[in-house]
Amino acid sequence: MALKMYDLAAADPLLRFSPYCWRTRMALAHKGLAVETVPWRFTEKDAIAFSGQGRVPVLLDGDKVVTDSWDIACYLDAAYPDRPALFGSADARGAALFVKRWCEGQVHPALVRLIIADIARIVHPKDTGYFRESREKALGASLEAYVAAEEENLRHFHAVLTPLRLTVKDMAFLGGETPAYADYIVFGALQWARCASPQDLLQADDPVAAWFARLADLYDGLGAKAPRATAA
Amino acid sequence: MALKMYDLAAADPLLRFSPYCWRTRMALAHKGLAVETVPWRFTEKDAIAFSGQGRVPVLLDGDKVVTDSWDIACYLDAAYPDRPALFGSADARGAALFVKRWCEGQVHPALVRLIIADIARIVHPKDTGYFRESREKALGASLEAYVAAEEENLRHFHAVLTPLRLTVKDMAFLGGETPAYADYIVFGALQWARCASPQDLLQADDPVAAWFARLADLYDGLGAKAPRATAA
């Protein structure tokens, strides 16, 4: 039986844009596990109340419910040890946790500065009020004011990517010759931006763009073929 | 036969303070390999000319000469596969390379802002002129001017450590339950500062300080017992 996953969706149910859900989609594909994704919107807390919390991804594997993208990755390696590992060793898992902390602390905030107003344009109408109010309260600014310094924000985003750029200049993936969960963590962030925003944030000659394209092409183009926002 | 390693030394030949050499010292100890260290000063290029380059660490394993701390780590895992691995898997090696890029791009420059003038005080008299001139040219400022904004520089250093702090708050080591090469990369940076400077740069309640102490205590206190600079 296929696994089932609640996956953040835009007004367009095929447009999926959560960085955390993208990590999990890639992780499931890496392990060769089929998954049925259920589109879910921010305000549909009732639909996932069974999981004991209010965020996606939520993974159902038979009767087993797993939440939190990191816990899901650890679960998949433990539950399916005969399939390709997301973490090749204990120290790979440790260093991947470091990559996660770096990504969420530096890459995610730099992307919010670039795409948060774009996200407000794609969310389901029933999410619009919740999304704008909760984010403007958290950011202390209107979404439009928060992204106003476009050039400076883009420069900062490119600067933040420096350690990734220097790494994938010399290696195909953070996993080495083949991708690993550390790749999917950062891929999720850039795929979030790619799907939620019509902006092209990476320069064509950036080694990060080539690395991102390699990941997007994996698993029959799971990332590359995914619907993205179009310019208004 | 013990391995031999050229190791950057201060005027005091027992005071060793290269971040790259510390990585290698820890890596050799991790693998249980005895090493004879040879004190080396910046201006002794002739002494390591046989290696085809002018930096330490230089490792001699019988007739084999290996330079560059990263290449040495990879060499040790390849040459001594039956001893504890520095990289548990290919993806651990990839993520460790990311940690190296992050450390050298963010932690090292933040530490230079704090300790470069202290280093000038401990180097061998024959290195003093070379050290000050080459560094002041590279930094575009006198060493004393470069470290003048002490409080701001310290705040920046603590901020830079955030992804490490959040990781080792939840895990004993970047390697997980046991240390791995990614730990030694960042340990080398902090041990560089600990040995070259009398300043205590980490706050006692910082999870990074506890993680550093765990590493310094390894291998019979290799890091903790190492001589450090004393206040002038």
Quick structural summary:
Chain A is of the alpha+beta class and 232 residues long.
Keywords for this structure?
homodimer, 232 residues, alpha+beta, Glutaredoxin, Glutathione S-transferase Yfyf (Class Pi), Chain A, domain 2, 4-stranded mixed beta sheet, globular
What does this structure look like?
- Two copies of one chain form a homodimer.
- In chain A, 53% of the residues lie in helices and 9% in strands.
- The model of chain A has no long low-confidence stretch (mean pLDDT 97).
- A four-stranded mixed beta sheet of chain A has the order 2-1-3-4, with helices on one face.
- In chain A, helix 3 runs antiparallel to helix 6 (150-160).
- The first copy, chain A, has 232 residues and is α+β, with helices and mostly antiparallel strands.
